[in-house]
Structure formats: structure tokens, C-alpha cells
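Dig into what follows:

_____
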Amino acid sequence: MDINQHRPQLTDYFATRRQFLNRFGMGMGGLSLAWLLGPEVGGGSAQALTATNPLSPRKPHFPGKAKRVIHIFAQGGPSHIDTWDPKPALAKYGEQKVDAIGGTPLPTQFKFTPRGKSGVEVSEIWPHIGENIDDIAVIRSMTTDIPSHEFATVMMNTGSGRLVKPSMGAWTVYGLGTENQNLPGFIALGGGLGGAANWRSAFLPGVFQGTLVNNPSANVERIIENIKTSHLSLARQREQLDLVQAFNAEHQKNLGQEAALDARIQSFELAYQMQTEATDAFDISREPQHVREMYGETPQGRQLLVARRLIEKGVRFVQTWHNGWDHHTAVANNLRRKAGEIDQAIGALLKDLRNRGMLQDTLVVWGGEFGRTPRHDRGQRGEPGRDHHNKSFVSWMAGGGVKGGQAYGASDEFGFNAVENKVHVHDLHATILHALGFDHEKLTYRYNGRDFRLTDVYGNVVKGLVA
């Protein structure tokens, strides 16, 4: 008799007698249910992705022009009337109260000039972005639900202002995977109001959530200090991770797969890989001096240069945050200063992507959570500003199959209501997914008995924006 046969084995620790009986009974019922439900039981082909590597590159529903996204989020609500939607009619009313806008008009604060071959009017505060206007589609008819910063910010990033929903970046990586297994598929550079709600994965597997890098302009070693250890060599860490993977494989074989556990182990793997890969990706000192000067030696310039380096290395979705657009007073001075912080960097990004042959398959999106009122807010005549406004605002898109050199949609003569070709946030999301090759109604995830999607039960692709 072989005494070793009677000694406890590793597999013995992964199932109890109660678990065996429970799984036996439930398994027979599950077989019957699977026969009744047929192919619906899987919840869609994307659900099976966790069986291998959930971040592996995957094909979209149809060939998309865009392969990756850079989302430049101007948090605070930029004034559309002073940035991208000129309203000369406001100056005609002087000190008169206009009932249609609920107060005294505050005229457009800057001069607009036709730029590029397309002749789209661009505010004087955008000299560098204006040089790229023929690649840009300006959406002058955006709308959202509620003019509250936190609600509208989370709405723009997740498609829901109240429910805990996955972010746009998480949906993108869920659908496409990523092209670099040593870096996260979704990275948020900086953050703002609403915090992690804007880049979380919610009920999607945790591996799809955004990785926050608060200060991409900092020393590279400081950026990755939370994922490095001075106590163990990379070789020793690799041994530990291999052991964890072996235990997890045995766990899956005996007790089934657990999404939360797999996501945690995947995060450990990612942290290990990033210790070497991230050092290179975030180190802009490796860029030629003329490139760094083109972007500008500023926080925003370094941020967007890092964004370009990340997508060049295969990161699927990069979101950059530029806060401080909430101008209730002194809108002329504050807005000129705020635009001046990022105009050069965005202009450089678009030129750099074009020169590298990457603009054609990189979708760049700019915009805030809502716009501003065409009437005076606080400060009145002394330091006039504008209040929150959700009925009309502006976003723009470039690259990735976008029909550039156009102003799409229109607001009324005051910039108060979107009146022509309205584009709701859900429509913008549907259009972004379309550019990536997805039918937004079919990119779903089953949770609590319902198929969820980024656009909820709304949204239409804006065909006039995409080639």
C-alpha cells in the first residue's frame, strides 16, 4: 500500500463535502437551464474574454478608423460662447434685459476669425489649435441633462450622473483590449471632481478600470514608487507571481473562476510589468529637445507629451484632465489665461500625431461637462462672468476618421439653446464607439440580469461627424 495516497493533497483544500454536494446538485440544474436558454446563457462573446487574458487585443464589430483615444477633459464648464461658438447678436442688446436668456446679455469676449481652408471661425485664444482646424470637427450643439458640476462630469465620463456605471475608457478597453500587456489599457493623467467615478470599471471586471497618475510631470521614479519594492528583486517577484498563478489555476479547476480574484491577480501582474515599462513611457527626457519645446515646458505640455508616448506604446485610452474652467467672474481674463495653459500643447499634439502618421487612427476629443450662460452672472459690470449652462455647449473631435474642418450643429442667436442637429452626451458616446468600430447597442455587459451599455437605452451615431 502506498502511504502517500492517504496523505492530504493540494487539491483537497479546494473543495469540502458540502461544496461537492452543492455543486453536484446545482450543476445538474445548470445543465438543464443551459439547454433551455441556449446561446443566451453566455451573455455575449465579450463575456468569455476572462478565460484567457482579458487585456488581449480584440477586433471590434466592424473595422473602425480609430484604434485609440486621447480624451482631453476641460473640467469646470468652458464658455462655448467665448471659445468655439461666436454670438455677435449678444452685443446688439447692450443693457437690455432679454427674457429669452433670463437676464442681460454678456457679449462674446474675444474676436473670432476664419481659419484654415475650411474657414471655421476660431477664437483668438486658440492660435495654435486654430492652425489644425481642418482636422477638427467643432460640435456647436452639445447638450446634457443637469448643469451641476459633479453630475455632469460623471455623466460625460460614464453616461450616467447617478448610477455607478463603467467609464468610457473602461468600455473601450473591454471592447478592444490593449496593445501593450506591460501597461494599463486605460490611464487617467490627473483627476478632478467626482474622483474615481470618472475612470472606474464599476461592474465590468476590475482589470478594465483606469489607472490614475496624478502628476505625470513628476520625476519618473516618484510616479511608479507605489508599485516598486526595494525589498525584492524582479526575479523574486516573478517567482511569487508564478506561485499565485499556480494556486489560482488550481482554484479555478476545483471551485470555478472568480472575477474579483482574477482582476486582483491581473493588477499584481500589471504592477510587476510596469516597473520597467512605465519608466520609459513617462520619461519625457527621452524626447528630443525640439519636441519638448513644441509641446511647451508646462504641466499641460508635459501631460500631453506623456499621453502621446503612452498611446504610441499601445495604451488604448488616455484621459488628460485640465481643471479650472468654472468662470463665474472675470471670464475674459480667466478664460484667456486658462486657454493659454493648453493651447500650445494641444496644437503640438495634433501636429505631432499627424507627422507620425498616427492622427488618422487616433481619436482626440476635447470638451467639458457643460457650457456657460450668455447672460451676466456674478460680478456684473465690474468683473463679468457666466453661470453653468446645459442646454448648449461645445466639444470637438479630431483624427480617427472624423470629418474635420467643420462646425457641426448650431445654437440659437444667443447661444442659449441648441437648435440644429442636437448632440446629447449619449450621442457623443455612440459616435466615439462608432469611430472605434463598435455598434454602441451591441457593446454590452450583463449585470444583475440586464445588458448594460455606455449609452444606456439612448444615443444615436452622429453620421455627419465621421467619415
